[in-house]
Structure formats: structure tokens, C-alpha cells
Amino acid sequence: MKVKLNTARYCAVFISLAALFVLTVIWSINSGSVTIPVREIWRIIFFKGAIERGELKADLSAFNIIWKIRLPRLMLAAVLGGALSLSGFLLQTFFRNPIAGPFVLGISSGAKMFLAIVTIALSAWMPTVPVAVTVTAAFLGSMLSMMFALLFGGRIKNMSTLLVIGIMISYICSAVTDFLINFAKEADIVNLTHWSMGSFSAASWRDVKLSALIVLPTVFCVFLLSKPISAYALGEGYAQSLGVNVKRFRVLLILLSSVLSACVTAFAGPISFVGIAVPHICRVLLKSSKPILMIPVSFLCGAVFCMVCDLLARTVFSPTELSVGTVTSAIGAPIVIWLMASRRRDET
Amino acid sequence: MEKSYFELRDLSVGYGGRPILSHISLDIRRGEIMTLVGPNGSGKSTILKTVTRRLPAVSGEVFLDGEALRSMDAKRLASKMAVVLTDRVRPELTTCFDIVAAGRYPYTGCFGLLTRRDREIVGEALARVNAADIADRDFTDLSDGQRQRVLLARAIAQEPEIVVLDEPTSYLDIRHKIELLEILRSMAKERGVTILMSLHEIDLASKVSDKIVCVSHDGISASGAPEEVFSDESVRRLYGLERGSYNAALGSVELARPEGVPNVFVVGGGGYGIPFYRGLQKAGVPFYAGILFQNDVELAVATPLAASVITATAFEPVALSKLSEAQALIDSCDTVIDSGCPTQGANRANGELLTYARARGKRVLSGHLELKEALL
Fold first, then answer.
1. Is the model's pTM score more than 0.80?
2. CATH fold group of domain B264-375
3. Does A339 touch chain B if contact means CB atoms closer than 8 Å?
4. How confident is the model at residue A156 (pLDDT cuts 50, 70, 90)?
5. CA quadruple A83, A310, A202, A178: dihedral, nearest 10
6. Chain A residues 229-248 within an 8 A CB cutoff of chain B
7. Could you state, in order of their start, the residue ranges of all structural domains in chain B?
């Protein structure tokens, strides 16, 4: 019997995404309020040590722009974009619903609420809230709203009901946040609003390192789970009959996706639609939903998607910078609508 | 006596520690097909869920090849037991091959990559259910019949010693039902795979199974070989049939007998009368039937539908007493139906009945068209 192997397609997707990744990196570094020629970028990136030691001459301002501003921002966008997309993929697997994502389930709003509480509470004592605190607060908020969703999830078997609960949690958190904002100082409101739009600006290498330290091991764990994820796609009953410990697997799945989305929300604020749109694009590209392919491809594609969106946010209305959330929504929402509309009727 | 392969010992099943069926003891030998039948909601699925460890047993034990199911390693169990569930499977962008390949789960390595041998086994499983041609098709694009076959192939690819199926024939048309059950039969007989399933179609159940278990609302009401378990009366009791009837020998079902005092007499025989009996039943017209020989297949339909049937001993001329009995009934009717059964030789008595009816000025209808017009 002959079974068609789509290896060629899979390789093509991988290679073109990798190429796109490199291209986006170069393009992003190249463009902005200061344009840096590609040859210069090449020298500055690959001969960093030599330039620092003064062995090689280079434009110092370009050197600083690349190493202190554009590169960390780009890397943060890549790591968090990948994390966001993968988190969406996991949530879609978990809820068996294509529109599940960190934004839809109220995870982002939970983070925002916590951030608002912390900012407003602490602003009485300190003028600027330290980054570590905001990151921790956002993280706790994400986990808390996820816990709520799961708490109801234990009792409610129907996945679409659970999704509705997620959306309701999101509304409750927004209401609390709006309520708190009435008592906030103007500066806090500005900060909070800025954060809640989602942005990769002001990224530092410390942010990149910290987020990579959280995201990359998590991605590795997810990859190790690709076999049970594929069995889970057939439904809990079949997964259990194949020897998957369904209860433990579900907890693991939700924990990993929470860590990913909480990390993104903490470092860059809520960024909508990446978690829904990117895994969909990947499925269409691969014409398959095998987790072993979907996990690396979603991560890579999410990284490229967020880098491109950030580039657009920076450059389209330059010198005014858009928030990256605006761009991801503007691009992601139509993609989601198109995908929903083109799905066959019997699948919904 | 052969040792049992799969045994339920004093098992109680239910949800949340509350048993809905208690003290179930059954055993199946290797290569046997056991079928659970019974009304909706009697707990067939609950039993199947318990023996596949989806539900914990309330009390009692299940043994697989002498080993307690409760303490078995999940992976080991998966290599011995496969299931076909009623759950809706809706994976996105997954080919039939991939669905069947999921059956290799207990045997593949940490990333679930298939070896050449795995691919062969998946191919064989697909071929076994005649689905090799749809291996590359997307699972969600298939018809119900094809899906069910692919899901069975998935179970086969798992190379189990026992397959548990929950109502595998629902949503299938008759051809696919027969196909599916034949595959199960050959798995059991040729490969010694033990099969435990639930079925709604008692007629098919009695034909495919070695053992039947009747699950009613108050527990296991009977179990054993189909011919021991199924009688017209036991099926009637099991399903609480108050209207309509079931014929165990033929596995056929008839709807409820029309009520009232008959005004119609059907002269049947040799199967000619069957469409008339059913036609009258549908129209709700009560009727008598006769004279039928006791070995006539038509009796299986006439008996449950007619208000009364005049029968005659087979292989003998019709006794005069029977003839006059029939004439008496005709006297009480206005209409007599000639089913068209030839009235020569041994069946001469029925010819005499028709002549008698005409002589008495009764309306004699023959053929379906006339009956239809008369019913209107």
C-alpha cells in the first residue's frame, strides 16, 4: 500500500520559515528612523568583539542602535511571539476549539488586573514600580485567571461553555481594572494604558535573557509532550485507552500554556490574535496538525509574525510608534475571520 | 473447560461511587464474541467504560488473562486492549492513515515516530477494513460508515487481544453493519481476538455473538448463547415491549396489532399475505387471517398482527373443522382479501373460502391496488 508522504512540503515550510526569519531580522535591523546598510549590520553583528576591542572600525551610533535597541527588541519579539503562538496551539488542543487562545480565555485580562492592583497600591510608596514586581504581578494574574477557568473546567465537561466562562472572566477582570483606574494617578494610568496595548519597545537584554530562560525550557517540555498531544487529538477516551494518563496530561498541558502566555503578558503586555491566527496559518501551510510538526513550526512562525508586526508598528507611521497589539489585531483578526468562514460547515 | 480470558467478578458499576448495576459476573473465553443488549440507559455503556478503565469500578474486579485490571500498567493494558467508542472524533487535518497510526501509540518511541514495521501494520489494518483506498483522505471528509471502519482499523493496528466496542453499528446502513460485524467475526475466529461490545440490533447480535448478555434496568437479566437467551418472551420483557413484538427465530420486529373488532378476513398463505397484513396494520385496520399451515413463514407476521389466525396442520389436507371455523369468521366480516396465493392442491381449502365469501355476497378484494382504494 502506498501512503503519500508530505515530507517535501514539511521541509519546504521549515526552510522558508527559517529564511523568512533571517530576512526579517536583517530587514528589521536595517529599517527605522536611522537606516543602517546591510553590510554594516553584517560587520556589527559578526565582529562585535573586534569592534569593541577597537580592532575594527565601525559607526559607533549604528553599533549602539543595533546592540542596545534593535536587537534586544527583535529577540524579545521573536521569543515572546513564538511563546504566544505555541500557547495558543496548546490551548486549542486542550479545549479542542480553534478559537481558544490566551486572550480569549481571560488570561491577559487577569494579568492586567493584577498589574493595575500592584501599580496603584505601590505607587503610594515608590515613584516607579520595579520591573521584577510588574512581571511577577502579571504572571500571578495570568495564572489566577487560568486557575479560575480550570476550576470551572473540572465541573463543566462542555468545552464551549468553558470558553464562554473564559470570556466572562475576561470581562470581570476588565471591570475590576476599570474600577481601580478611577483611583489611580495620572502617571499610572498612562503606564498601565501603554502596557495594556502591548509593546516590545524598551526591551533590554535582561528581559530577553529572562524570558528566554522561561520560554525555551517550556517549549522543550512541550515538544517532549508531542506524542500524547497527538493521541489527545482523538479525544480523551481514545487517549486514555492508548495509555495516556489523561488527568495528569491535562494539568501539564494547561500549566505549560499558562507559563508561556503569562510570560508574554508579563514582558510585553496583552498581544491579541497571535495565539489564534498563527497556529491556523501553520496548519494551513503544513496541511497537517501533527503536533511534532506543529510545535516547532508554530513557534518559528509566531516569532516571524511578531517580528514583522513589530517592524510595522515601528515603521509604518514613523516617527509615531504604534503598539504591537494594534498591528497584530489588524492583521490577525481578518485572518481569523477568513479562516472561520472558509472552514467546512460540518466542522463547527 | 477452557480458562476464561476476560472476567468480570461481582462487579458493580456506576458514577461517583453510586452503583447503577451491581454484582455483574461474566466471563469470556479467548476468541469469543460477547454482546451486551438491552434498552437505552440500562447501563451497557457504563459496564464498557468500567472494563476499559474509563470509570473506576464501584466494587468487584475485572480480570484480563488472569491479571487484575485495576493494577495493570496503562501502557501494558493499551497493548492488550483496544476500544471503539461512541465519542465523536473530529481531529483537524488528519488523514485516515494518521488516525489508524494512532493505534501504534503503545509501541512507538518517545516522539511517536513510526517505523517501517509500524507503517506496514497500519497498512494491513486499513486493508482489513477495506479502507486502503481512503488512507490519504481527511478523516473529517468521510461518511459515517467509512469513519467507523477507520476507527476499527485503528483498534486493529493496536494489535490487541481484546477489543471493546460501544455500539459500533449505530449510524451505519445495513450493508456497513454487516460488513463491520463480519470483520469482527473473522478477527475473533481467525486471530483469536476476544470481542466485547454493545449492540442495539438484537437480530444482528444473535447472529454474530457467541454469548449474549441482557442488561436491563434491574441488572443482568440473562446471559448465555443467543438461542438460550433470546425468546420472543425474553426480548419482550427485556425491552418492556408492550406494543409490537419481536420474533426470535427470524429476528424480525412487528409493530403493535391494530385494536378493535375485525371486519376484514385475509386469505393468505405462502408469504403472499405478508404485504396485506402490514398494509392493514399501517392503516390501523384490525383483521383475521387464515387458513395458514403451521409451517408457513407467513405465520411469523400474521400471528403478531392479526386479531386471530386460523392455522392447519402442515402436510395434511385442511381439516373440515378449520374450514368451518374460517367460514364463521368470514360471516362476521364485510370484506375478504384474496392475497393471490395459488389455491390448487393442498391449498384447495382457501379457494373454497373465497368461493364461499363470494356466494355470501362479501366484498372480495384482490391485489394491492384494490386494497388501497378500499382503504381510502
1. yes
2. Rossmann fold (3.40.50)
3. no
4. low
5. -80
6. 230-231, 233-238, 240-245
7. 6-241, 264-375
